[in-house]
Amino acid sequence: MNGTQTLKSKSTTGETAFIHQPEQGSWGFEINDLVSFGRDSSCNRSFEDPFMSLRHARIERKPQGFLLRDLRSRNGTFLNGARIVEALLNEGDRIQLGQTHLTFSFKRDLKETNHSLWSKNSKWAQTLSQMDNLSRSDLPVLILGPSGAGKELIAKTLHDKSLRKTGPLVCVNCSALSESLIESELFGHTKGSFTGATSDRKGAFEAARGGTLFLDEVGDLPLSLQPKLLRALENKEIRPVGRDDSLSTDVRILAATHHQLKEKVYRGEFRMDLYYRLNVLQVKVPALWERMEDFEGLLYGFCKEGGVSFSSKQIRRLKEYSWPGNIRELKNFVFKAKAYLGDEITDDHCIEHLLESADEAIPSIPSETKSENAGIVNSALLKDLELELIKKRLAANKGNQRQTALDLGMPKSTLHDRIKAYNIDLPKFRVSK
C-alpha cells in the first residue's frame, strides 16, 4: 500500500481493522487479541521515536470493540487531540504516540472511506444499508433532505453501485436554469428553433443515455414544464425543441429536493401525478443535527483531509452549534478555520466568527424539537392545504371537476373522492363568479 503503514487485526465479529501511518511505506501485522506500541523491541510494533516510551500504548480487542490503552507513558497517549488513559476506537480516529501519528480504520485503504456514507445513527445506518438494493433497481428514486446534507452524494452512490455505472451520470440543477432554457437543457433543441440556437444540441435525457439522469432541486421545476417531464417519464420518449418527432429514452431517473414536495402539491406548485411518478423509491437524508452521533467522525474526516486538528474543548463548542448548512457547512468551516487560524485549533482560539451563519444569529435547535417529525408538515395541516387548494381551483373553474382535476394533476375520480370526503358544496362553486 503506497504511502501508508498498516497494522491488521480482527474484531470479535470477524471485521478487519487497520492502523495507518501515512508516508512511511507499507507493512502489515496480524494479531488475534492485542498489539503494543513503543520503542522497546518486545513491542509488537516498535518505533524509533525518542518521544515515545519503551512500552507506550496498546490496542486490544474487546467484546464492544477495539480499546486503546495508555501504558503509563511519559508523554501520554492522545486520541483526536485529547489525552486519554483508555478509550474505544471509532472509524477515522487519530492517535498520537510521542511524535508518531496513526489513524484507525476498518478500511484497508483510507481513500475508500467516505465520511458521509456511514452512520452511528440507527435510522440513517439502516437506510444506508439499503443502498445496494436501491442501486440494483431501475425505478426512480426521490431523495429528500435539507441543503448541504449530502443528497448529491447519495445520487452518485446509487449510480456508482447500479448496473448503469458504466454509463454517464448527468446532473441538471432545476433551480439554476431559467424557465426559457430548462426545456432545451432537458430535451435538447434543433438549430434555429429559437433565438440563439445556432446548432443542434443534445439535452440531458440524450446525454445520459444508458446511464442515470439526476434532477437536482426538482421542486423548483417550473409548473409549465412539469407535464412535459411527466410525459417523458411515462412514455420513455422526449421531443427536442423544434422537432416534430420524438426520441426514445434510456435513463434511470434520480430526483432530489430540499422542499416539502407534498406541501407544494397541495399549494398547486407541483403536479401530484409527477410527484407520484418520481416518488417510487425514496431516501430521506437527515440534517446534521439529526445524526449528531456522527459529528466527531465527520469532523475528523474533514480534519484529516484538510490537515488540521481541534482541541477537545473546541469540539465541544462545535457540537453545541445548530449547523443549519449541515455537512457542507461543517466541511467549509474546517477549511476556513485552517485558513484563518492554522493547522492546530487550540482552546484559546476564537472560532465563533467563522461559522457561516453567526452574523444571522441562528439559535441552536431546542432539544424538544429534535424529534423524528421535526420539519415535517403534520397531516392535519396538509389536509387543510389540500382543502383550500381544491376550493380555490373549483372557484376558478366554476365547479368544473374535469378542469380542476387537470389543474391539480390528479385523476377526476380522486378529486370526486376528495370533494365527498371534505363535504364540499359543489353548487356553490357552479354559481360563483
Principal-axis shape equals elongated
What is the number of E strands? 23
Could you report the average pLDDT, rounded to the nearest whole number? 79
For the sheet with most strands, the description reads:
7 strands, mixed
The portion of residues assigned to helices is 25-40%
Rg, alpha carbons: 28 Å
Helix/strand/pairing category: alpha/beta
Distance between the termini: 77 Å
Low-confidence stretches: 1-13, 22-28, 357-379
Strand content: 15-25%
Specify the number of helices: 15
Strand order of the largest sheet: 3-1-2-12-11-8-9
How would you characterize the overall build of this protein?
The protein has 433 residues and is α/β, with parallel strands linked by helices. It is 31% helix and 21% strand. It has 15 helices and 23 strands. It has helices spanning 122-128, 131-136, 151-160, 179-187, 204-207, 226-235, 261-266, 272-278, 295-306, 312-319, 326-341, 379-396, 401-408, 412-421, 426-430; strands at residues 4-10, 16-22, 30-31, 34-38, 45-46, 57-62, 65-70, 77-79, 82-84, 86-88, 94-97, 100-105, 141-144, 169-173, 188-189, 201-202, 212-216, 237-238, 247-248, 252-257, 281-284, 309-310, 344-345. The strands form 6 sheets. Strands 3-1-2-12-11-8-9 form a 7-stranded mixed sheet, with no helix packed on it. Strands 5-4-6-7-10 form a 5-stranded mixed sheet, with no helix packed on it. The chain starts with a strand and ends with a helix. The model is unreliable at 1-13, 22-28 and 357-379 (pLDDT under 50).
